[in-house]
């Protein structure tokens, strides 16, 4: 179970309040007007933003006070998910711990890249990719990382309708296969229908 | 108006090229024999060459290697006390007149130096500041602070998003270093190494004062000795060619391999960056403290040197050299900034047209004074002018002009990024608004003013500290402060040298502090 209990965050002079629960292995779509605090919530769960009160709990254990690298979280930022000076393949293999990349992981990456139609891009540098291709690369890495809690900040924003359909289907499939608990910020109702089990609508407090 | 600006740019480029061309013409034309190529088969030449390269290589290596941990300490520990003052001190150390540093180091580590007993305890009785050890110490002291500033600015330029991504991907400290920090700094480190190598390779006053004998002589000092003591022009000419080719070639090589922002002022704002804690944090605090102590000690030694004597120096003796130095500095800084700005106009125009190669050539011509050593140019021009003017009468104007020639490359390096940034951001907008001439200048000036002010201060301080050019063209009736210090130090009047050094250091600090303050006030308006 993932739970956000009476969480309060100070942001630009406003106090943002959150309180909800999500079953393990479920996908939650987070929606709301711009500036309502959707991305701030993800940042707080990942540990980049401190709360003034309340708790974030994962399987009964509080995440508050845990450093970023100790949290069971895999996070897709809205932008800047790739190191521009490293190849796409090297970027793909980051975030899987210190062990050398094994053949299973390479197979998983290659299969996913093939499925999301970016297998031709793996040996290139990120600068040579389009916005949509970069986004799919980052989605693959975020979803395949071993962390059980996945945070996706507008993951499909850069994609055209056809690729979007492909990517939403793949994200849901992987989330269910590996029992990932997913918090996904999106403005699109199609994404909600394709991927989410439930919706959290945030309002101005 | 546009035509005048363009024309003056090319004219200025021609002017600086002429200085070098005339100096080489002077060297080549003086003797029918040309350079003394027989020196190539002389072991004397190879021992000088090998020592020049060895000391420059080690100085650059130590400066870069020691600067890295200090820059990391102030970056990863942003709450350390006095970081801003420390960075100002670093700038002061880099531009500090070499004679001031030499006096400080001798007072600290010379025969009766403050900490010489500790050094002898550590390194044995064989410690001697005169020789390779002293040269390396002085070069590292001057250049390490410069490298600290560059590394610190480069670390600050790493975007927050890279650190956030690294944290999110749970990269190990080693991975963070390799993927984020090393990637950002390695290119810079190489260029920095090359830049410091060239500065040390061309270093004159330090080697002259601390070399301590023929076994520790560099090409630059050998040229001086060949001219001043032996009046052996063919030998000086051959050494000058060797100096120019090696320094120029090496600098071009590293310029192609690496990329430098030099002393660029812009640093990214830091909202989320890692902060070292625990043992690592404490080690960084200790590194920072040690760096402070090392940089301040030679200055403290000057103070002790002053109080440790019963001899008195008449302040009137310092008045004329001080006024002369200030006048020279003011002239060179003003002309240097104007020349650099004017010479950058053709480069900017070529950059806007996408003519990168031509732009590089223009920039190289504008800043070639960096690799054409002051001694080589001075000697060549001296020989050329000897046949045309009365050097005793016109020596000081030539000193002022050559000082300007020597500091121009620093102005080019500092102004270029800001002017190119203006073009990238606003040139198209200015064109679409049909703004040109004085109206364009009025828009441009507030954007570049802070960099112009710091460049002016930097050039002022660099020009004040000259010894090399004055040693060729100067005369006793127009003595400068650094030359006075050299005279005192040469006759072992360390107390007098300390007083004059403190005065020079005080002037340099005041100039840098004043301009930094003015810049801050403008930013806050």
TrEMBL record, chain A:
Residues 4-205 form the ABC transporter domain. InterPro entries: AAA+_ATPase, ABC_SmlMolc_Importer, ABC_transporter-like_ATP-bd, ABC_transporter-like_CS, P-loop_NTPase. GO terms for molecular function: ATP binding. Coiled coil: none annotated. It holds the Pfam family ABC_tran. The keyword Membrane applies. The keyword Transport applies. Keywords: ATP-binding, Cell inner membrane, Cell membrane, Membrane, Nucleotide-binding, Translocase, Transport. This is ATP-binding cassette domain-containing protein.
Automatic annotation (TrEMBL), chain B:
The chain crosses the membrane at residues 7-28, 48-71, 83-109, 129-152, 189-211, 231-254, 286-306, 318-344, 365-388, 394-412, 451-474, 494-515. It is found in: Cell membrane. Residues 49-254, 318-512 form the ABC transmembrane type-1 domain. Pfam families: BPD_transp_1 (PF00528). CDD domains: TM_PBP2. InterPro entries: MetI-like, MetI-like_sf. SUPFAM superfamilies: MetI-like (SSF161098). PROSITE patterns: ABC_TM1. Keywords: Cell membrane, Membrane, Transmembrane, Transmembrane helix, Transport. Its main location: membrane. It is a multi-pass membrane protein. It comes from the Bacteria. Belongs to the binding-protein-dependent transport system permease family. This is ABC transporter permease subunit. It comes from Parendozoicomonas callyspongiae.
């Amino acid at each position: 179970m993932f739970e956000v209990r009476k969480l309060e965050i100070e942001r630009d002079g406003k106090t943002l309040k959150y309180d909800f629960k999500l079953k393990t292995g479920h996908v939650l779509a987070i929606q709301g007007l711009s500036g309502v605090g959707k991305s701030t919530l993800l940042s707080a769960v990942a540990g980049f933003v401190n709360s003034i009160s309340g708790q974030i709990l994962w399987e009964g254990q509080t995440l508050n006070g845990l450093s970023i690298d100790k949290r069971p979280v895999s996070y897709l930022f809205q932008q800047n998910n790739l190191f521009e000076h490293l190849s796409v393949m090297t970027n793909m293999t980051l975030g899987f711990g210190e062990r050398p990349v094994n053949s299973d992981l390479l197979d998983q990456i290659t299969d996913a890249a093939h499925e999301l139609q970016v297998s031709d891009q793996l040996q290139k540098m990120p600068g040579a990719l389009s916005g949509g291709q970069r986004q799919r690369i980052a989605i693959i890495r975020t979803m395949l990382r071993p962390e059980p809690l996945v945070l996706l900040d507008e993951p499909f924003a850069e994609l055209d309708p056809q690729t979007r359909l492909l990517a939403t289907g793949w994200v849901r499939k992987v989330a269910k296969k590996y029992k990932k608990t997913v918090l996904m910020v999106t403005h699109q109702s199609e994404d909600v229908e394709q991927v989410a089990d439930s919706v959290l609508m945030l309002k101005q407090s | 108006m546009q035509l005048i600006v363009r024309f003056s740019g090319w004219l200025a480029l021609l002017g600086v090229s002429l200085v070098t061309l005339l100096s080489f013409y002077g060297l080549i034309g003086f003797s029918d024999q040309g350079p003394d190529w027989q020196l190539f088969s002389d072991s004397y030449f190879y021992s000088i060459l090998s020592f020049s390269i060895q000391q420059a290589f080690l100085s650059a290596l130590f400066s870069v290697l020691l600067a890295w941990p200090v820059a990391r300490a102030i970056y990863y520990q942003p709450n350390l006390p006095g970081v801003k003052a420390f960075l100002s001190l670093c700038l002061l150390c880099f531009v500090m007149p070499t004679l001031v540093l030499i006096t400080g180091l001798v007072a600290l580590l010379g025969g009766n130096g403050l900490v010489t007993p500790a050094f002898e305890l550590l390194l044995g009785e064989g410690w001697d500041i005169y020789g390779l050890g002293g040269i390396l110490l002085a070069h590292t002291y001057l250049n390490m602070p410069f490298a600290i500033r560059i590394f610190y600015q480069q670390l600050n330029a790493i975007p927050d998003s890279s650190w956030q991504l690294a944290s999110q991907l749970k990269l190990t400290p080693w991975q963070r270093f390799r993927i984020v920090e090393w990637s950002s700094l390695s290119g810079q480190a190489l260029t920095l190494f090359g830049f410091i190598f060239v500065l040390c390779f061309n270093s004159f006053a330090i080697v002259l004062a601390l070399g301590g004998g023929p076994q520790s002589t560099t090409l630059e000092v050998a040229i001086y000795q060949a001219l001043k003591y032996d009046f052996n022009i063919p030998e000086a000419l051959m050494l000058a060619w060797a100096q120019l080719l090696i320094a120029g070639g090496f600098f071009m090589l590293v310029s192609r391999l690496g990329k430098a922002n030099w002393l660029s002022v812009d640093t990214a704002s830091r909202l989320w960056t890692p902060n070292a804690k625990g043992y690592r944090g404490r080690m960084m605090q200790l590194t920072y403290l040690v760096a402070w102590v090392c940089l301040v000690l030679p200055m403290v030694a000057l103070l002790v040197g002053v109080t440790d004597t019963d001899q008195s120096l008449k302040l009137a003796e310092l008045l004329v050299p001080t006024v002369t130095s200030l006048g020279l500095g003011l002239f060179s800084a003003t002309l240097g900034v104007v020349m650099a700005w004017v010479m950058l106009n053709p480069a900017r125009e070529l950059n806007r047209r996408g003519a990168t190669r031509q732009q590089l050539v223009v920039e190289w011509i504008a800043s070639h004074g960096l690799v054409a050593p002051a001694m080589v140019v001075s000697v060549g021009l001296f020989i050329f002018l000897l046949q045309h003017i009365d050097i005793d009468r016109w020596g000081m104007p030539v000193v002022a002009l050559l000082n300007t020639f020597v500091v121009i490359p620093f102005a080019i390096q500092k102004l270029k990024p800001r002017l190119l940034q203006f073009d990238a951001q606003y040139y198209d907008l200015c064109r679409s608004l049909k703004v040109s001439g004085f109206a364009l200048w009025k828009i441009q000036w507030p954007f570049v003013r802070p960099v112009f002010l710091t460049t002016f201060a930097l050039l002022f301080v660099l020009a004040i500290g000259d010894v090399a050019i004055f040693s060729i063209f100067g005369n006793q009736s127009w003595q400068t402060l650094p030359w006075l210090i050299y005279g005192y130090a040469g006759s072992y009047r360390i107390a007098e040298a300390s007083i004059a050094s403190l005065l020079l250091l005080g002037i340099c600090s005041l100039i840098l502090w004043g301009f930094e303050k003015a810049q801050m006030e403008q930013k806050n308006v």
